[in-house]
Amino acid sequence: MIFEGLKQKSSAKQAIYRNTLATFDTLRTVSQELVVELSRRITPVDSTVIIEYRPVNEMEFHIRFSGDLLVFVMHSNIVTFPDDYGPMDTKYVEEDFRRRFFGHIMAYNFMADSIKYQRLNDPGYLVGRLLINIDNHYFLEGVQQLELPDNDMSDNAVTPDGLKLFVESAMVAAVNNDLIAPPLNDIQKISVKQKLENQQVSRGSKVGFSFSNEQRHPSIDGLIY
Asked: This protein's superkingdom (predicted)?
């Protein structure tokens, strides 16, 4: 009995991982296509506006635009949640214990210059999290700026169009999250360490997003842009 339980759960988690990886690959593809489409449309209007896609590794890629950087990261582990969280108390999840487990993909917003100048103390902000289950359905969580529709995981099959909408919404939320300059009193002094680390004296910070669940931010590889 113990063996069967372990086998079922392990098999389910492996299937969810494969679903999540396939979703991330599709997300990568639609992001590349979106970057090409937006670049084609914006270049005749203003050739100085650069929109670009940057691969990092199998589980991470970036989109840079208008001084912003979106970092998409797939987590390698399968997770679950308390019974009162998100989709957990729905009939859909209760019908199959395997639906209690999820792969997850996060989208973070950084200032592009934070990576370019390796300003290690600059914050990034979680824009959205995509949960993928055994049925290859998704549950999307995000900041209020995403203006997400009501989530019904039983109906939300992963599709390229749905993933494209997620990327577009994340880009809009990032652009609308304005940069705020620090007060004068906060920038009157700078340490030698800050100077050596290219910490700009007057660097600003984003306003930040309103999000229902506080998340920890994973570190990312620094790329030269």
From this structure: Bacteria
> Phi/psi of residue 153, each to 5°?
-60, -30
Query: 184 by DSSP, 3-state: which?
Result: helix
**How many CB atoms lie under 10 A from the CB of residue 66?**
13
Q: Identify the helix (H) or strand (E) that includes residue 12.
A: helix 2-42
> CA-to-CA distance for 143 and 128, rounded, in angstroms?
6
Domain coordinates in residue numbering, the chain: 2-179
Residues 88, 20: Cα–Cα separation, whole Å: 18
* Alpha helices by DSSP H, 59-159: 91-94, 112-116
pLDDT in tens, the chain (225 residues): 666 666 788 899 999 999 999 999 999 999 999 999 999 998 899 888 889 999 999 999 999 988 889 999 999 999 999 999 989 999 999 999 999 999 999 999 988 777 776 777 777 888 899 999 999 999 988 876 565 656 789 999 999 999 998 999 899 888 887 666 667 777 677 777 766 665 554 454 554 444 444 333 333 333 333
* Edge-to-edge order in the sheet of strand 60-65: 51-57, 60-65, 68-74, 103-111, 125-132, 138-142
How many Å apart are CA 39 and CA 28, to the nearest integer?
16
- The torsion defined by the Cα of 167, 171, 173 and 177, in degrees rounded to 10, comes to 150
- Residue 54's nearest CA partner among 100, 110, 121 is 110
Rounded to whole angstroms, the Cα distance separating 101 from 86 reads 12
Does this model's pTM top 0.85? My answer is no
What are the C-alpha distances in Å from 49 to residues 44, 110, 177? Answer: 10, 18, 18
